[in-house]
Design goal:
By secondary structure, the protein is mainly α. The longest helix is centred in the middle third of the chain and has 36 residues.
């Protein structure tokens, strides 16, 4: 019942987000037709505004947009004139989803073991080495990691292709570039969660009952120590799945991250609102999934 109520509550929340995005994007100075190659005549500009209902009051524009939104129509793009927002999302979202999911798995695969071992071997050389790399991953941004990987692995050693999105090999360098920063954050969260759990009373009880150190760590400590990572996974996964402008632009990947930035700069109202809605729905749904996962990992959590 709790999750059903949460799902029902998502509908008005999405409507509020759509209304705020619809209004706020129009507050910024400039308009969608200000950066044409040649200035449009007043007659042409009036015709364009009438075609896209921009000559009407904002509440009327939103009502027209809302009627299309109910049907699943996010409207036409004002910059890419021959495409709708749905077309561009359908074209770019699968690529961004693939890249984001790959980066997410990479971040988990590197960050969780790194944080686990630095907590278990606290004060030893493994802790110092692991903490150093976790901090290094956390401090180096993608726009630095990407060019280094391209120059070293793709150009100098010629082990992997430089750019584009044609085969699984093309995904390796973008995945590392996008995921390495988040691997550092996950390592820090895992270490903090494990440190709190290892000092808990139930760990002493588990050892007193005769469980081996490995069983106590994997069966009890890890299950609760990873909860901070679970909480962070919802917004993290949404951020990764919607793509990264820097990484997609650097590796010339045709995802939706580039469209988000370009549409914001060109005042493509419908595209911006559509992508904001997409990101919001992903965040809301993934956070709901995180809450459900919380209940599975921690028996103390009850939803009523």
């Amino acid at each position: 019942m709790y999750f059903i109520k949460r799902l029902i509550g998502l509908v008005p929340l999405v409507l509020v987000i759509s209304f705020l995005a619809f209004c706020l994007v129009r507050v910024a100075p400039g308009g969608p037709f200000d950066k044409e190659r040649s200035p449009a005549s007043p007659e042409v500009e009036r015709a364009l505004k009438a075609k896209y209902h921009l000559d009407k009051p904002v509440p009327v524009q939103y009502w027209i947009y809302l009627k299309g939104l109910v049907r699943g129509d996010l409207g036409p793009s004002l910059k890419y004139r021959n495409h709708t927002v749905n077309d561009i999302i359908v074209q770019g979202l699968p690529i961004s989803l693939t890249l984001g999911a790959s980066a997410f798995l990479f971040a988990l695969g590197v960050g969780v073991p790194l944080g686990f071992f630095t907590a278990v071997y606290k004060g030893k050389w493994a802790d110092y080495v692991g903490s150093f790399f976790a901090l290094l991953f956390f401090c180096i941004p993608a726009f630095v990691v990407g060019p280094v990987l391209i120059m070293l692995i793709a150009i100098k050693l010629e082990w992997l292709p430089v750019a584009l999105w044609g085969s699984p090999l093309h995904a390796i360098l973008p995945t590392i570039t996008l995921g390495i920063y988040f691997a550092g954050r996950i390592a820090r969260l895992t270490r903090e969660g494990m440190m709190t759990t290892l000092n808990a009373d139930f760990m002493t009880t588990a050892r007193a009952k005769g469980l081996s150190e490995t069983q106590a760590l994997l069966k009890h400590a890890f299950r609760l120590g990873v909860l901070p990572v679970v909480s962070y996974s919802g917004p993290l996964l949404a951020e990764l799945l919607t793509g990264s402008f820097v990484v997609e632009n650097l590796f010339q990947i045709p995802g939706i991250g580039v469209f988000m930035v370009n549409s914001s700069l060109s005042r493509d109202y419908t595209m911006v609102v559509g992508l904001v809605l997409l990101y919001s729905i992903l965040v809301l749904v993934l956070n709901l999934m995180v809450d459900a996962t919380y209940g599975l990992l921690d028996p103390r959590v009850r939803y009523e």
